[in-house]
Amino acid sequence: MSYYITTPIYYVNGEAHIGHAYTTFIADALARYNRLIGNDTFFLTGTDEHGQKIEESAKRNGKSTREFADEISATFKNLWDEFDISYDYFIRTTDANHQQSVQKAFETMYAKGDIYKDFYEGHYCVSCETFFPETQLVDGEFCPDCGRATSIVKEESYFFRLSNYEQRLLEYYEAHDDFILPRSRKNEVVNFVKSGLNDLSVTRTSFTWGVTLPQSLHDDKHVMYVWLDALLNYITALGYGSEHDEKMQRYWPATMHLVGKDILRFHAIFWPAFLMSLELPLPKHIGAHGWWTRDGEKMSKSKGNVVFPKEVAEHYGLENFRYFMLREVPFGQDGDFSQRAFIDRINSDLSNDLGNLLNRIIGMSGKYSDFHIESVHVSTYHAKELQAIDAILETVENHLENIQFHRFLEELWKLFTIGNRAIEEHAPWVKIKEGKTDEALATVALVANILAKASVLLHAVMPKTTATIADALGFEITTQTYERLIKACQLLEPFVIKKVPPLFPRIDEPLMPEAPKAMVEADTKHEEKNNEPETDNLITIDQFFQTSLKVGTVVEAQEVPKSKKLLQLQVDVGESRPRQVIAGIKEFYSAQSLLNTQVCVVANLKPAKLMGMLSEGMLLAAKDNDGLALIRPEKPKAAGTPIG
Ligand code: MSP
């Protein structure tokens, strides 16, 4: 059977973070598991390199777009190589063969009448450089992100007839209950489609860093919308549209597209519609995972709390990291990375349960049988345990079909409980003294078999550690041993156990600095930049005093509904009535905390409307990588006191 699994292709505008590592670890584990059970497996990952945002990131970094994309793409590939990620192909959307295949797909959809040329007219926020559908606007006019007024902009565009596929998509979801995993996410997709699909603008004329249109269209003003280009990677990687499309025959349709919940709609709506248009079968599953936070907080560059996978692996070990991520969070739910939780998992699951069990049988077999272990008497003394083990092994793999690694691992760990209990109940050290050698050695062999079987199944999650355990137990993890030990419920052949150093040393204290290194570097850079004396754009004192700055007291404060960023403040600046100031500081200050505190206000700014509300001033604030701080008088001053 063929098994084709993909990760999203990652944008090349920054270094890989824990979210990217999470998807990649799950995909790697599923790919390894499928290879182990004998499936013809293909695992795809790569980088998504086109679009305006990347063009801008390159500019900010003083590099050509191509140079910038090459560099960041290489950091992803190198990281996955360092992490021994078993991908079969790493695709880049700037690859020539990908671009040719994308053009081919565009041509096919165009020829079919599914792509047509028209004008795109919509509500555009100049500041965010984004079009927003009317339904998302606040009060029918304002940008849902920054609160500024949007304007109607009209530009030429090619459109994909998404609206034509509404019915077929709904029928497909209905008929394939496991298309979207976890199943609990299906409704949000269905409801979105039911609310009506507009045709999708699939080209842009405002930038050039994208796949150009097929030559046959003779239209070089447009480049393709980055999501059309990106989604097609899942088939271009198999050679779609080229002479060498054997892999299309062999692996398409994909078994599993793994994605984060934020990009589920693109994969569950646009992508199937594109495939229907191309008359290709649809992928079997789209698996959408949740988001990771750090110590309960959303990660962001500006907060400096991004978890970088390389740093975690360096401090705690790559395979411990993989285990933690897959065990900690039910697939589909959000997860939290904290060093405490991480350390507890390693100490309890890996060190206490798995590691100790291995140490115990190395110790006991060394004492009682010169490290020789034979399974011959296991069924005589441990029939009950064998039955319980077989029952777990019969069902545990089902959890992998739904990507429920946490359940899979939880169940697998029950094997260790059986092993530990057998040791306590049968107390081999007593049996040896009583001369019941067969029974004592049967218990040791039972535990060796438990460790062997668990290692085979755990191989997908911790490939190197389990290979070491298997080696200690005298076998190799292969499809054949999977067949023998798991499927056929057989026991190990006689072997001589090898001593291994403790695999999971206990950890007492957090090993990673709390402030990620990368941010410290960024901070230093920031300071260096500011150390340069300003010589450009100097102003005279008169020019400075054209700005009226005043001390103000916040007398009322509340959140602006539906806005992520804005607070609505009434600020007393010594006038007959307080001024209303709409300030973009909600992410950093609660309304409550501002009440009766003092601020510095730019008092002669032209009033502006934000989210339909008049703002009659601006607060002075300083923002760096640690966040934003309001500038306030050092001692209380009467409201309205001029600053200067
Ligand atoms: N390039 C698109 C995907 C195109 S696929 C045809 C993209 N790239 S991304 O680099 O921004 O995001 C890649 C993945 O990282 C997404 O699945 C996203 O959900 C995931 N994550 C980004 N931040 C995350 C967390 N904090 N936690 C978990 N995953 C997160 O989107």
Write a concise synopsis of the structure shown.
This protein has 24 helices and 27 strands.
Note the topology.
Elements: E1 2-6, E2 10-11, H1 18-36, E3 40-48, H2 52-60, H3 65-82, E4 89-92, H4 96-111, E5 115-125, E6 130-132, E7 151-160, H5 166-175, E8 180-181, H6 186-194, E9 200-201, E10 203-204, E11 223-224, H7 226-231, H8 233-236, H9 246-251, E12 256-260, H10 264-277, E13 285-289, E14 292-294, H11 309-316, H12 318-328, E15 335-337, H13 339-369, E16 372-373, H14 378-381, H15 383-396, H16 398-401, H17 405-426, H18 428-433, H19 437-458, H20 463-472, H21 479-487, E17 495-496, H22 517-531, H23 541-545, E18 549-559, E19 567-572, E20 579-583, H24 591-594, E21 598-602, E22 608-610, E23 613-615, E24 618-619, E25 621-624, E26 627-630, E27 642-643
Parallel strand pairs: 1-3, 1-12, 2-3, 3-4, 8-13, 12-13, 14-15
Antiparallel strand pairs: 5-6, 5-7, 7-9, 10-11, 16-17, 18-19, 18-21, 18-27, 19-20, 21-24, 22-23, 25-26
Bound molecules: 5'-O-[(L-methionyl)-sulphamoyl]adenosine (MSP).
